[in-house]
Amino acid sequence: MKLQSKTTFELLTLPLLIAIGFSAFIYCEHFHLTSKAFNTLMGLGALYGLLHAPKSTLPIAGFWIGLLWCYWIGYSFQYYGLGWAQILVALGFGLVYALYYGSLGLTRNPFLRGLILFGLTYVWPMDFNWMQPELIFVESYMGFEKWQFGLILASLASTALFFKYRKIIPLFALFIAIQPTYTPPQKPDVRIKLISTDLSQDFKWQESNIADIITENIRQIDLAASQGYDLVVLPESAFVVYMNHYSSLEEELLRRSQKIAILTGTLHEEDSLHYNVSYLFNKGNITVAKKMILVPFGEYIPLPSFLKAWVNRHVFAGGSDFVTADKPTDFIIKGVKFRNAICYEATREELYTPDAKYLIAMSNNGWFKPSIEPTLQNLLIRFYARKNGSMVFHSANGGGSGVVY
């Protein structure tokens, strides 16, 4: 009976507790219950569990972590007529992260586990970087730089060298990894209005609704101009058309850009290639910013070429064939430089360079409603913004709009 109770704890209770500790910061943020003290304790407890738990616990904990972080990814499949695949996608991500965190079970040594876990911060399965282990401390008292995360792991692993109450001794090293209060950069001298919309994805895709969507976007632009803003930012694909095929719409926006700069998400076709882009209308001029980093399985298929064509044709009906720009696009508005970031790009470190102090991001989170996706996205943007001393102005459909730093 005692052995059975131990097995139940290792295979059921302990994995779930580790996963909850590892994911609590997301759900607390989502429900506006964030506490730095609580996030610190839960994060440290989860890492301690990963470093010291029995081998059999780790893949199960990884499975639950994968579900708690990524259950929503399959939601977008319903818009391709594949609603039945949602649960399979969620389980698939659970299995991927069962292997990811289960790899810690290759050794019982907590120091080697810490080394493996630190190495995993550089590993992105399927080129999807939203599983960042150090992200658990983004809203805590602990730092989330690589050296701080490494020190935390070393401190927690070192408890194995001590017995009873002496186990607390190596934990004093955690004080070195405490993050000082973050000081955000000064806001630019540009009045920016971020438009937040809440349109379901199936509504946006219906051709009969395009005229109404355009009319409402124009109304929001005119309102921002009348309120004295310098720049109005609309979400990703706010205009669900290939903008360069709608000359009358372009002319209408160019005329309004004499009063206010307009940055909007839309589509663009060039040489029979499709681009997910931002259009900047400013003082009668147009700048097209093409997306540089695409969403895995959303805008490109991260599979070998012989599988990629089949999946794109039979699963996504040709919808995942966007192409990219070679480098990010920067805008100058009132003498201030802003870097363009479209959705997934805002959560990739490549966009955050020393010369990019201010970013303007736009997203369409309507694919994943209702879920924690906008919250996780916001935490990731915050993570990179704070690491690089940047400020991000984010306009989104389906949740997530705001100034992030």
What characteristics describe this protein?
405 residues, alpha/beta, Nitrilase/N-carbamoyl-D-aminoacid amidohydrolase, five-stranded mixed sheet, 10 strands, 39% helix, globular
Describe this structure in words.
Strand 6 (330-333) and strand 7 (336-342) form a beta hairpin. The strands form 2 sheets. A 5-stranded mixed sheet has the order 1-2-3-4-5. Strands 6-7-8-9-10 form a 5-stranded mixed sheet. It is α/β, with parallel strands linked by helices and 405 residues long. Helix 1 packs antiparallel against helix 2. The chain has 11 helices and 10 strands. The chain folds into 2 domains: 2-177, no CATH class; 192-292 and 327-404, Carbon-nitrogen hydrolase (Nitrilase/N-carbamoyl-D-aminoacid amidohydrolase, 4-Layer Sandwich), CATH 3.60.110. The model has no long low-confidence stretch (mean pLDDT 94).
